[in-house]
Design a protein that fits this description.
The protein is an alpha/beta fold. Helix content is 41%, strand content 21%. It has helices at residues 17-27, 45-59, 73-84, 127-137, 154-177; strands at residues 2-7, 32-36, 66-71, 87-93, 111-119, 140-144. It has a six-stranded parallel β-sheet, sandwiched between helices.
Length: 178
Amino acid sequence: MMSVYLSHGLESGPGALKTQAMKGIAEKLDNVEPVVMDYRGMAEPAQRLQHLLGVIAERGDDPARRVLAGSSLGGWLSAAVSAQQPVLGCFLLAPALGLVDYPETSLTIQARHTHIIHGWRDDVVLPDPVIEHARQQRLSLRMVDDDHRLHASLDTILLDFERFLRQCSALDEKGATA
């Protein structure tokens, strides 16, 4: 069973549009269990990171079958966890990389498979640091004509997310039989 941790952004919650839409994609796939995180009441990125790490530890799932997905601060959280422990996949939407007020901004993502979607018109998390991060690590990056919320790109996100989960599942099956 592949576990998919879905992390929302700073000012949203577990019921956010992208989180719920991605949960729906995960639920329709075989052997995929979505885990929707709830960070409401936790303002600090470090506090949210400890919460996510605690839930992961409590669940005890196999890191080789773990996918982290998130938007904005949720994307940073996913990247931060994958910098601490290798995981199967990291799917990041407008990840908060390169922001001076976050604990670590130059994270080395240790995922077998990573995909980033970022908006050209994002004025919250500027595109350049994210593009540079993807370039340095040679990560898959899709730039879209959208703002930070990426709501105009929801169809693209969901198509990419389903393809991403299927690719991760194929990697998982190869790893399990190798």
